[in-house]
C-alpha cells in the first residue's frame, strides 16, 4: 500500500481571517500545489481525503483537477492541524493508495509516527510538500518513507 501526505500550499497569513480555518491559498500557494501535483501523475490513487479547512480544500481541488481524478474529495475532520496521529491511523486501516491533504503540525507528526512510532520528532514538510510512504500494510512505526518532495 502507498500513502501520500500533502501539506496545503502557502496560505494567507494568520490574522487575515477571523478563523484559521478560513485562510485561503495565495497565488504562490496555488502554483506550489500545481508543481507538486505533477508528482502524482500516474500514481494509483483510489481516494483523496482532505481537511475541511479552506486552504486544504483548495489544495485538494487543485490536485483533483490537475490529475483529472474522478471520485469526489472526502472531507474529514480527522485531518485538521492538531488531530492525534494515532486517531488518524485508525481511520486509515481499511484504505489503500490514498492522498491525505492536511496541515502542520499533523503532517509532520503523522509522518514521523508512521515511520518510527511515538516519541520521535516530526518530519519537516514545507507548504505543498508531498510525502510518499509505503508498506505491505498500515503498521505504526513500520512504514517506509520513499520521498518528501517540495515544490
What labels describe this entry?
151 residues, alpha/beta, Rossmann fold, 4 helices, His_Pase_superF_clade-1, SixA
How would you describe the overall organization of this protein?
It comes from Pseudomonas izuensis. InterPro entries: His_Pase_superF_clade-1 (IPR013078), His_PPase_superfam (IPR029033), SixA (IPR004449). Residues 1-25 are annotated as: Disordered. It holds the Pfam family His_Phos_1. Residues 7-25 have a biased composition (Basic and acidic residues). The protein is of the alpha/beta class and 151 residues long. The chain has a single domain (2-11, 19-149), classed as Phosphoglycerate mutase-like (Rossmann fold). The chain is built from 4 helices and 6 strands, in the order E-H-E-H-E-H-E-H-E-E. A 6-stranded mixed β-sheet has the order 3-2-4-1-5-6, with helices on both faces. Helix 3 crosses helix 4 (106-116). The longest helix is centred in the middle third of the chain and has 14 residues, at 54-67. It is globular and about 40 Å long.
| Largest beta sheet: strand ordering | 3-2-4-1-5-6
CATH topology: Rossmann fold
**Number of distinct beta strands:** 6
Mean pLDDT equals 95
Radius of gyration: 14 Å
Global geometry: globular
End-to-end C-alpha gap: 24 Å
Q: What's the CATH class, please?
A: Alpha Beta
Question: Outline of this structure?
Answer:
Helix content is 28%, strand content 19%. It is of the alpha/beta class and 151 residues long. The chain is globular and about 40 Å long.
Amino acid at each position: 500500500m502507498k500513502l501520500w501526505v500533502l501539506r496545503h500550499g502557502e496560505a494567507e497569513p494568520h490574522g487575515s481571517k477571523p478563523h484559521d480555518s478560513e485562510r485561503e491559498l495565495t497565488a504562490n500557494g496555488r502554483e506550489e500545489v500545481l508543481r507538486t501535483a505533477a508528482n502524482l501523475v500516474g500514481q494509483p490513487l483510489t481516494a483523496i481525503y482532505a481537511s475541511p479547512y479552506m486552504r486544504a480544500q483548495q489544495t485538494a481541488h487543485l490536485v483533483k483537477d490537475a490529475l483529472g481524478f474522478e471520485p469526489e474529495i472526502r472531507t474529514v475532520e480527522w485531518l485538521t492541524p492538531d488531530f492525534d496521529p494515532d486517531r488518524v491511523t485508525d481511520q486509515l486501516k481499511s484504505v489503500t493508495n490514498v492522498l491525505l491533504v492536511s496541515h502542520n503540525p499533523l503532517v509532520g507528526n503523522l509522518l514521523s509516527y508512521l515511520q518510527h512510532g511515538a516519541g520521535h520528532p516530526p518530519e519537516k514538510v514545507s507548504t505543498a510538500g508531498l510525502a510518499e510512504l509505503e508498506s505491505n500494510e498500515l503498521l505504526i512505526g513500520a512504514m517506509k518513507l520513499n520521498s518528501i518532495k517540495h515544490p
